Amino acid sequence: MILSPSMLSSDFTNMESELKALEKAGLKWVHLDVMDGMFVPSITFGPPIIKAMRAKSNLFFDCHLMINDPGRYIESFAEAGADLICVHAETCDHLERVCAQIVDAGAKPAVALNPHTPLETIKYLIPQLYMVLIMSVNPGFGGQKFIPFCLDKVQELKQMITDAKADTLIQIDGGVTAENARELVDAGVDVLVSGSAFFGYPPYDERHKTFQNICK
Ligand code: DX5
Ligand code: ZN
């Protein structure tokens, strides 16, 4: 299991020390939520902030783009230092093309699905995806409650990946806690995103260990 803490719940006035603290706590990934105020109600940050973070951190930058028509910005995010670029299926008219664009830009391609979006949408893309993100809340805010049917969705996706003989990772994002983490990993999740349930419980090394022990 990989834990990818969502910086949305971090202290934005101290990004550098937050990133350093994550590295010190043994984390390998960090989840960066990009919001445009259109696809989702909130606005967060874009490539300039990610570039500034990149200069201070060697963590794997797991960039979750909650923006309309993300094809316009793939190269900007890759140049800023995104290691993985995850676009929402709902925001792309030509999803296959955008995934190829991510690869061409030098990043790992991933697709996110809102809770109600059927898995069928990405069925044919699975072999070319590094990761699929199952949203377990409606995107836009931290601290929301996990939507229970998303657990079934993870199990179905796991089966689809097995059937496709692919090694695509499954990520889940939204309402992940120390209480439901084990069940999610058992269902097939490889990467847990956690915002409020991670940053709300310092110190980070202890919190990281708690998640690891629960999921082992
Ligand atoms: C929500 C974001 C999440 C958010 C998760 O739209 O995509 O990454 O930070 O926050 P928690 O873990 O608090 O639900
Ligand atoms: Zn996210």
Topology:
Elements: E1 2-5, H1 15-24, E2 29-35, H2 47-54, E3 60-66, H3 74-80, E4 84-88, H4 95-104, E5 108-113, E6 131-135, H5 150-163, E7 169-173, H6 181-187, E8 191-194, H7 196-199, H8 204-215
Parallel strand pairs: 1-8, 2-3, 3-4, 4-5, 5-6, 6-7, 7-8
Helix pairs in contact: 2-3
The structure holds D-xylitol-5-phosphate and zinc ion.
Compute the number of helices: 8
Structural class by helix and strand composition: alpha/beta
Q: Major sheet, described briefly? A: 8 strands, parallel
Distance between the termini: 8 Å
Radius of gyration: 16 Å
Based on CA inertia axes, which overall geometry fits? globular
**What is the CATH topology descriptor?**
TIM Barrel
Run of helices and strands: EHEHEHEHEEHEHEHH
For CATH, the homologous superfamily is named as: Aldolase class I
Which runs of at least 5 residues are low in confidence (pLDDT < 50)?
A: none
The ligands found in this model are:
D-xylitol-5-phosphate, zinc ion
Name the CATH architecture.
Alpha-Beta Barrel
State the total count of DSSP E strands: 8
Strand content: 15-25%
Residue share in helix: 25-40%
Please, could you describe this protein's structure?
The chain is an alpha/beta fold and 216 residues long. The protein has one domain (2-214): Aldolase class I (TIM Barrel), CATH 3.20.20.70. The chain is 33% helix and 20% strand. It has eight helices and eight strands, in the order E-H-E-H-E-H-E-H-E-E-H-E-H-E-H-H. Strands 1-8-7-6-5-4-3-2 form an eight-stranded parallel beta sheet. Helix 6 links the parallel strand 7 and strand 8 (191-194). Helix 2 (47-54) runs parallel beside helix 3. The longest helix is centred in the C-terminal third of the chain and has 14 residues, at 150-163. The chain is globular and about 40 Å long. The protein starts with a strand and ends with a helix. It binds D-xylitol-5-phosphate (DX5) and zinc ion (ZN). The site of D-xylitol-5-phosphate (DX5) has 22 residues, from strand 2, strand 8 and helix 7.
